[in-house]
Write a structure and sequence with these properties.
- In the C-terminal section; belongs to the DAO family. In the N-terminal section; belongs to the methyltransferase superfamily. tRNA (mnm(5)s(2)U34)-methyltransferase family.
- GO terms for molecular function: flavin adenine dinucleotide binding; oxidoreductase activity, acting on the CH-NH group of donors; tRNA (5-methylaminomethyl-2-thiouridylate)(34)-methyltransferase activity.
- This is tRNA 5-methylaminomethyl-2-thiouridine biosynthesis bifunctional protein MnmC.
- By secondary structure, the protein is α/β, with parallel strands linked by helices.
- Helix content is about 30%, strand content about 25%.
- Strands 14, 15, 16, 23, 24, 25, 26, 27 and 28 form a nine-stranded mixed β-sheet that branches. Strands 5-6-4-3-7-8-10-9 form an eight-stranded mixed β-sheet, with helices on both faces.
- Helix 8 packs parallel to helix 16.
- The structure holds flavin-adenine dinucleotide and S-adenosylmethionine.
- The site of flavin-adenine dinucleotide has 38 residues, from helix 8, strand 13, strand 23, strand 28 and helix 16.
């Protein structure tokens, strides 16, 4: 286990003698007895010049240092809703080391709130995330209001957040019991995120806190206090500090060209369309329809990755599974993934012991991952496996063609069945994709290379393109899944995974997979591949393999997986080529990276808080 790993410890409800919610851990109240919302309005909104300061802006971003019960967020949301001159979008980032569970939050908040905040609190509780460490992006008001909850200590996570902040709400427990929330180092990180003219406000007036705020780069002053307090602190960023200029996609006026219409390209096009940014997606497979890259691929599995030390792949995979849930559960019919759960079957007793110990140390929420013994596994899956394993309730069975079609359906997305031979930038900085004889196929402010294994060759056509060694080492593996019919298909209610996987029946057929064929000339179904899939299935089920019969007549789907050495995806801007982005190397986990990459690139373009920690962005950065 990495010494940096911090398990997330939820808060426990408690009250002081006056009935005000308090933390027994810190020995302090969440808000003054005379009014949480009143304090939010007077100290945090007024102290930051709100609502006036967001007026006339496309987007406004608030960062809060302690989410607690969310009163400040609810007061902010209501004030923003009430203001006809509000910014088009409002983004809120809030840190919380000890979040409440949804039922506890509900019990603490709802009985004490009146409408209209009560109605907002109900929406908040409805959207409340699983208690997992890291960043969680919640959306309200049709996506115009986002709340990025950073679950973990602010000491660690403030460094990890990418945001362009206009106003800070400094709201820890009292500095005496909670010094981490008022430190010079923390304020330094807040300044790193600040836009020019950013402000900060807090009820706290402690001298040391004020000196730290000033040392970090704020001009600090006192103003009339609230309730029992004589004074409160307001601050504005020193005029020479802070980010200037607008993000390139602000206002939804940018356009994008996307090369590749598989899971990678579709994820980006969809996320851009949700923000009003139009794109043209180019891929010859569209001749077969919007889901052409997975034509005939009956179904696939999305299982959150997990390693015993919660390594970057595990953390990025968790973020990816959460994004996929947020984006794709909105779809209708066959496009909406079926959240049937995944059992990662573990037969080896040593491995089982190690995993159980790791789960104890990781302390991840049991509604995300838990250990099932053999009897519990049988109950969940309906299959007698004679073994237990890791149960991921967020395991999803995905119908590939309908999912791709739904992602690519928005009117802001144009699909063109074209092959791109080269890309480049014109004198005005606009990106262009070229076809045969130098014909311009499409142009836009941004160009996203999402062509899997075709990406390095296209990147090489950009004049002066920076060398990207990671990408140069991209390789691809062919592979196939096999379909089982009738009594051959396994009647499992959940995805079974291990060395290979077995999906619940779709349209009466079972899907088992998959093979890995290095250096395959072209993806194709083979009898040897079917046999390998059956061997994997029987190992998964812990059964002897039946004699081979009729495998030549079996059906399935074959495709490619493009990957780089660390088996992480490559997602992000290409340094030194403004407006050029990569979304590739999805390997065997395209479903885990698709929605995450889309939201990362789209959020980057629009200047929104990014839904992934900076150290993880580094890991997947094009290099
Ligand atoms: C047998 C098998 C089973 C799998 N099962 C799963 C699973 O259960 N779960 C999971 O998450 N993942 C699974 N995968 C992996 C998953 O399919 C990939 O990770 C995913 O398809 C990658 O998406 P992509 O968009 O990057 O690449 P692709 O799907 O390969 O799409 C890239 C697209 O770019 C286009 N393109 C390339 N160059 C150009 C160009 N110059 N101009 C225009 N277009 C271009 C191509 O035509 C292609 O359509 C499986 C893969 C295989 C092979
Ligand atoms: C005063 S309460 C915040 C009240 C909240 N703003 C509201 O509107 O309900 C302080 C919050 O900071 C959190 N906190 C304390 N120390 C922290 C730390 N080191 N990192 C992140 N959050 C922390 C506490 O768990 C608590 O929820």
């Amino acid at each position: 286990m990495s010494s940096k790993y911090e398990p997330l410890i939820p808060a426990t409800p408690a009250f002081d003698a006056r009935g005000t919610p308090m933390s027994a851990r810190y020995g302090d109240v969440y808000h003054p007895a005379w009014g949480a919302l009143a304090q939010a309005r007077r100290v945090f909104l007024e102290g930051n010049g709100l609502p006036e300061r967001w007026r006339g802006k496309d987007a406004f971003t608030v960062c809060e240092t302690g989410f607690g019960l969310g009163h400040n967020f609810l007061a902010l949301w209501q004030a923003w809703r009430d203001d006809p001159q509000r910014s088009r979008r409002l983004h809120v980032v809030s840190f919380e080391a000890h979040p409440f569970s949804a039922p506890d939050l509900s019990g603490l908040l709802l009985p004490r709130l009146e409408p209209p905040e009560r109605r907002l609190a109900e929406q908040l509780i409805q959207a409340w995330p699983v208690l997992l460490p890291g960043l969680h992006r919640l959306e309200f008001e049709g996506g115009s209001l986002t709340l990025t909850l950073a679950f973990g200590t602010v000491e660690r996570l403030a460094r990890q957040v990418s945001a362009r902040v206009d106003a800070f709400f400094l709201d820890g427990f009292a500095p005496r019991v909670n010094p981490q929330m008022w430190s010079r180092q923390l304020f330094g990180q807040l300044v790193r995120m600040a836009n020019a003219h950013a402000t900060a406000a807090t009820w706290c007036c402690a001298g040391e806190m004020r000196r730290s705020l000033a040392a970090a780069g704020f001009l600090v002053s006192k103003t009339r206090g609230f309730g029992g307090k004589r004074e409160m602190t307001v601050a504005s960023l020193r005029p020479e500090l802070g980010r200037r200029g607008c993000p390139p996609g602000e206002g939804g006026s940018a356009t994008a060209v996307i090369v590749g219409g598989g899971l990678a390209g579709a994820g980006v096009a969809h996320a851009l369309a949700l923000r009003g940014i139009g794109s043209t997606v180019l891929d010859p497979v569209f001749a077969l329809g919007a889901g052409g890259s997975h034509k005939g691929h009956l179904a696939a599995a999305l299982t959150p990755a997990l390693s015993r030390d919660d390594d970057p792949r595990s953390r990025i995979g968790r973020a990816g599974a959460l994004r996929a849930l947020a984006r794709w559960q909105e779809f209708d019919g066959a496009a909406r993934p079926w959240r049937c759960g995944t059992l990662e079957v573990i037969r080896d007793p040593v491995g089982a012991r190690q995993w159980r110990r790791a789960l104890d140390e990781l302390r991840l929420a049991s509604d995300w991952v838990r250990w099932l013994d053999a009897a519990q596994a049988r109950e969940r899956t309906g299959v007698d496996l004679g073994a237990g394993g890791l149960w991921f309730s967020a395991g999803q069975l995905v119908r590939m063609e309908p999912l791709l079609a739904a992602m690519l359906a928005p009117a802001a997305i144009a699909l063109r069945a074209e092959s791109v031979l080269a890309i480049g930038q014109d004198a005005s900085g606009s990106w262009r994709a070229f076809g045969p004889e130098g014909r311009v196929l499409a142009s836009g402010d941004h160009l996203v290379l999402a062509g899997a294994h075709g990406t390095p060759a296209l990147l090489a056509t950009v004049a002066g393109a920076p060398p990207l060694p990671k990408l140069r080492a991209m390789y691809r593996m062919g592979g196939q899944v096999s379909y089982l019919d009738g009594a051959d298909a396994v009647d499992t209610r959940a995805i079974l995974a291990g060395n290979g996987y077995c999906l619940p029946r779709i349209e009466g057929r079972g899907v088992v997979g998959g093979t890995y064929v290095p250096d395959a000339e072209s993806p194709q179904l083979t009898v040897a591949g079917h046999e390998e899939n059956l061997r994997k299935l029987h190992a998964l089920l812990g059964r002897a393999q039946p004699a081979a019969q009729g495998r030549g007549a079996m059906e399935g789907w074959a495709g490619w997986r493009a990957a780089v050495a660390d088996r992480l995806p490559v997602i992000g801007p290409v340094a030194g080529a403004e407006g050029l982005w990569l979304a590739c190397a999805y390997g065997s986990r395209g479903l885990s990276w698709s929605a995450l990459a889309g939201d990362l690139i789209a959020a980057w373009l629009c200047g929104e808080p990014l839904p992934l920690e900076r150290e993880l962005l580094q890991k997947i950065a094009p290099r």
